[in-house]
Amino acid sequence: MIVQYLPVRMIRDEGRGLWATSAAWLRGQPNGAVSGVTAKGISPRVDKSHKGGIAPPRTMRILIAEDDPVSRRLLEVHLGKWGYQVVVASDGDQAWGILQQADAPRLAVLDWMMPGLSGPDVCRQVRSRGQEPYTYILLLTARTQKQDLIAGMEAGADDYLTKPFDAQELNVRLRAGRRILDLQAELVAAREALREQATHDALTWLWNRPAIVEVLVRELAKAEREASAVGVIMADLDHFKQINDTCGHAAGDAVLREAARRMQASLRAYDAVGRYGGEEFLIVMPGAAGATAVHLAERLRFAINREPVRLTDRALPVTVSLGVTVSAPRLQVTPELLIRVADEALYRAKALGRNRVEWGTLALPAIEAEPPVEVLA
Questions:
Q1: How many CB atoms lie within 10 A of CB 76?
Q2: Of 104, 151, 97, 147, the residue nearest 122 (C-alpha)
Q3: Cα 23–Cα 24–Cα 30 angle in degrees, nearest 5
Q4: What architecture (CATH level 2) is domain 209-359?
Q5: Cα(155)–Cα(127) distance, rounded to whole angstroms?
Q6: Residue 14 · residue 26 · CB < 8 Å
Q7: Cα separation of 64 and 105, whole Å?
Q8: Which residues pair with 88 in a beta bridge?
Q9: Is the dihedral angle over the CA atoms 69, 71, 72, 78 positive or is it negative?
Q10: How is residue 204 annotated by DSSP?
Q11: 347 partner at 20 to 30 Å CA-CA among 9, 189, 222, 362?
Q12: CA distances (Å), 202 to each of 21, 27, 57, 211, 243, in order?
């Protein structure tokens, strides 16, 4: 059974600008027993051990915060019977501690009156954080006045149920909460997909030009604070137009993707690489002084030309020319200047025969000395 996934889920490596879609990941996986995010949210998990290949709905964790042991046990029994994985807290402070954890339940049933923090207090604490994913909170209380309901909802609760509660009513209210959480997950996935499309190159999934320049701006600001260097490489695939003209644009796209993959694999975890335009790439190397920057550039050159790019019907030898420069600590070097100097070094590498690394020296303007200060006797 084959499931088609849309590229909504993104797997990110911050430093290198490495992204993979759920579709790209799935293409390398065997059929069956896989999961991902579709255009409509969480996809069904394929499992051939179940009829029709679709597994039962996933178990959701739910927090119960109730100080009365009888009520707590009653809730635990019902929720376990409905398929929830129950996490128990006996007071408000314990509930708040659980909800701050990284793997906190996204559904919570809170009693209003508890030792420590009350149910509304916990609601306020959760909402004040404003973090994702969203936590759906249902308040459970013996209070029946309208002003109590209003106070609970204003504190941040999503729903309200009075004691003694009806089990079926609680069940349907929690199912409504799950639908809201699923919708929120879809919105977050769609938002993240749009964000990645806006900052990443559609062909190589590297940073696009505005994004990699923004990375350079951030690293230069950091280097200025820390009095460190930032290395910059401009890399351009040699004779790329000839590949497109003789082998077709599909072959050219395959070469670009493979070149991007090899560069990512050759860089340090905290380096960043982006597609600057066409067959040209910009690499940002935090903390790389001159020798380190040149060594990394040579490593990239070797990674590209060490073996041909293998297509369906042929193998294409590919080489790359690179220009390298490094920012000077404690000097306010602009991103534009670094890119220009590296680009000029790249063109020297092209002129000197290609498939080589050339160094670009920053020509910083001279700093005029301040006139001496006259000291009055």
A1: 17
A2: 97
A3: 80
A4: 2-Layer Sandwich (3.30)
A5: 8
A6: no
A7: 10
A8: 64
A9: positive
A10: T
A11: 222
A12: 11, 17, 33, 13, 20
Per-residue pLDDT of the chain (377 residues; tens, 9 = 90+): 333 333 333 334 444 343 333 333 333 333 333 333 333 333 333 344 444 333 334 688 999 999 889 999 999 999 999 999 999 999 999 999 999 998 899 999 999 999 999 999 999 999 998 878 899 999 988 887 888 888 888 999 999 888 888 899 999 999 999 999 999 889 988 988 888 888 999 999 999 999 999 999 999 999 999 999 999 999 999 999 999 999 999 999 999 999 999 999 999 999 999 999 999 999 999 999 889 999 999 999 999 999 999 998 899 999 999 999 999 877 778 999 999 999 999 999 999 999 999 999 986 554 444 444 454 44
The amino acid at residue 248 is G
Q: What are phi and psi of 106, to 5 degrees?
A: -95, -10
Helices (H), 230-334: 240-247, 249-266, 290-305
CATH superfamily, region 61-171 = Response regulator (3.40.50.2300)
Question: 68 Cβ partners below 8 Å, 6+ apart?
Answer: 111
Complete DSSP assignment for 251-273: HHHHHHHHHHHHHHHHS-TT-EE
DSSP label of 51 = G
In the block, which residue shows the tokens 């903390």? Answer: 287
Residue with tokens 């340090």: 268
Half-sphere exposure of 236 (CA within 13 A, CB side): 21
Residue 206: Cβ within 10 Å count: 27
Are the CB atoms for 339 and 346 separated by under 8 Å?
Answer: no
Q: Where are the domains of the chain?
A: 61-171, 209-359
Please tell me the distance from the alpha carbon of residue 320 to that of residue 350, in angstroms, as a whole number: 9
DSSP strand pairing (10-13 vs 18-21): antiparallel
Are 327 and 288 within 8 A, CB to CB? Answer: no
Q: Is 35 helix (H, G, I), strand (E, B) or coil?
A: coil
